[in-house]
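request received
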Amino acid sequence: METNNTETNNENARPVPFIEEVNFLFDHRLDQEKLEKYCFDGRLRDSHIRSVVWRVLLKCLPIKSSEWSEILNRSRNFYGSLKKKLSTNPREDIFNFDPELNNPLSLQAENPWQKYFVDAELRDCINKDVERTFPEMQFFQSEQMRKMMSDILFVYSKQNDQLSYRQGMHEILAPLLFVLYFDHESYAHFKEQSGISDLTNEQRNLLDTINDPRFLEHDAFAMFRQLMMMLEKWYINTDDYGSDNSSIAPLSKDRIGGVPFCKSKNPGPNSELIEKLNMINDVMLREIDPALWRHLNSLEITPQIYGIRWLRLMFGREFPMHDLLFLWDAILADRPQLVLVDYIFIAMLVLIRHLLLCSDYSTCLQYLMRYPPTADIHTFIQFSLHLKSPKKFPKPKNYRLSHFPQITQAGKPHPNHERAQEERHFNNRTSPPKVKTVDNVLNKIGRQALSAHSTPLIRRRYPDSMPASNSIFYTDEPQDDMSEIELMKEQVALLQSRLNEHDLVARVGSRKLLAIADDIDLLGGNAEKQEKLKQEIREIANQLTRNTVSEQWVQNVPTEISSNGLDAVELAREAGTSPLQNNHSLNRHPKSLRKENELLEIHFNPKRKNF
Amino acid sequence: MEDYKYLFKVVLVGNAGVGKTCLVRKFTQGIFPPGQSATIGVDFMIKTVKVGEDKIKLQIWDTAGQERFRSITQSYYRSAHAIVLVYDVACQPSFDCLPEWLGEIEQYANRKVLKILVGNKVDKEDEREVPERIGKNFADANGFDYFLETSALDATNVDTLFQEVATRLTNDMKLTDERFHNFKSNENRDGNISILDRVLERAKCANCRT
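response:
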């Protein structure tokens, strides 16, 4: 059958068919542990039930599917009436004609216009941010989506008077809407393709209710409210409650005096967010990676400089959307909730330690504020989990080679890299590697030591923490020997980011095309022409989901680059220059690089001299 | 070592959405991003400029408009050499908030900090709500060192703004340096090494740190 054929072709790339997902979801034996494993294993990555699983994990829905209908009904009604109540316009208030009261110029407290003006200000504030939500994603630019976001945030802010709206909340809401919307879309698609005919009536009804696009806004609000319950403590400022403490300085000195290494600049923790960041830095990082902790400390890089954004947005700017969703799968599934966030924070630092340890203040900050793209999110999450429970989760292999320091999340050249190249060009490769790490007091001594030896100073200061042999830190290698590897990494990085981008765009496009193809039936006219048109559209859609890089070519990459390193560089160069010319690949088995669980691991030994 | 003569910290503050980040990006990267996400917390950029023959490194701290968060912004204020207060000429409320910002600056910033007032988005001439004269008057009345209207969109005065910041700070610093050297040579003649001398030396080191 034509439809089935398309279906299988299209679903080929997806690891789990929809039916299986639904069965998993409706299984009465489903429990927290199973959900957790499902999320950690990355099985939500291309699934169509992510929004439902998230709702369960956020406790919007109980784990038992039998109770869902009723609860959904209740929460949707709740939002509906709340929104109605909050969006009154005094102009339309036909029950209040008293000109003394209902009058924009009236100074009476009950004047509905007072509230109206305050609300307008809040709206304005929200809309300013909503309009610039993920500007690179078309999804959030539509009028309809903006209105929805604005309404949800407005209702939330009115309901939480004390906190109100804070910058950043909009980017907590955005991924929730994204996930809900795409699940609705794909469900509608499956339904039209009769992909759910095997289900019982009851199950189908329930799915209809859950994926009802009319309630996208309502359901997003419910999820947002639950998530914000956990995150709001990071949005509260002590300043909000007028606790102006004029005696900060002497107080903090007293309090901090006894704690060694505590930054005296910091006026003591005065919000939960700052407290949390200090705990992550001064307790966790200090224990897990003392060398890195000392390094950042000596540069006086406090975690709040970069960490406020990391936490408030739950890493929304540090990972591209498709990786972020997987990261959130893990964060939401993990119990106790949000603890994993601390370890992700640490993992992010530890995994770029080789970049940080040999960088000065500005360079470090640039890396932390423009976090290098993670090559392999799965490995990254495994590593975070490992940090949290080393016994339960083994350390993933090759976790160290997981970042692309040469580019930014957007795929542009990283400012540090640009600068380094400029300097290299400037100094014509003659100067020793630049390492500036010392604090003020040691500044002079440091400089002398540096000019005398080209070895990074950090190693001299903390010999215990830097293993000299079998180390993978790039600082151990003379910089010039590394340039070839750097080049190769750059090529791979660019290639990977381009691939990821194409992949996502293609899949969204293909999904839309398939939906259009199904709608052609609705048009009147020549049935034969319609069929032809449909076929053509489907073919295009299928081609879209195929690789841009030849599968065969990928398989030919040796997983172990052993004898001649230059081959690998050549390979990478080729990949960087001509991936799109391998057009014959279009007819090959459609399978995505990313879906195969991540980038091919290229093992190379940076110590090898012939590189 | 990087060869720059001075390093200055410049902090941008002002209401949300007045275009602080766009100004910084236009200056440091030469681009006006069509969509620019809201800044959360604080952002950081560096750019080296030339003042005469000297290379001057500017460390630009771009703060979030909504962030009146003492524990975050306080330290930036205190160590800043220059504070650029930005409003949107097409948005009266952003101008009305200036006294509040000024209060923050006076409370937390160094007394000698270079204060600059900037009216951004002059490309929106049709939507202008704050005349240039009003902005200028406000700057004069409130002890600002410099006032300028800019547009990150069409690059009006963007380079001028930061160049001016760098020039003024450099000149100030050179004056201080001269005084310091005169002072030092006097000291040496007496054969004493004063504590002040060391303190100054150390303060200089702190400024040079990148």
